[in-house]
Amino acid sequence: MLNSSVLVLNRSFLPIHVTSVRRAFALIYCGGASAVDSEYQTFDFEAWAGGGAPADAETVGSTSGAVPVPRVILLANFDGVPRRRIRFSRSNVFRRDAFTCQYCAAQPPRFDLNLDHVLPRTQGGRTTWENVVCCCVSCNRRKGGRTPEEAGLSLRRQPIRPRWSPVVNVVSSKVRYHEWRPFLIPNDGKAASLDVAV
Fold this sequence. Notes:
The protein is of the alpha+beta class. Helix content is 24%, strand content 20%.
């Protein structure tokens, strides 16, 4: 439970990040953030733990009793929207490629996905956004140390550096908790566009 997700809002109530329940409790307790309910009311730690939380909120045990888990927090001193370069990582490449093999379009379980260098490293290929794609184990074996053309494969699309924040993209792609809905879904019922330019 302490490692599950909490939506983080800036002072303007804009979603900017997802953190853990453990970190959210620490921020609320030290005054760096407030818990937020679906009515946009904010609560410090004492008020939240003392009955400000919704009745159906999940709880964690503490020495003083059960404490409701906040699913949304509001930062006390941050107005901005983070704008940063997207870190190159295995999980971010998987997200960019929608966990889909870029050769055969298969969507196997995550443990059956690999990263593939389009131009193999043995031929001078670099580990960059523009040369690495998500691929299934079967296509990775078939391709080996060859180019897609040499292996008889073709890319679904050319890999590019993403222009979104992976964390925010995860938030916008799926509302994980009903408490997040007021902050992610506008009145027309469509998912909010939370892309952050690089």
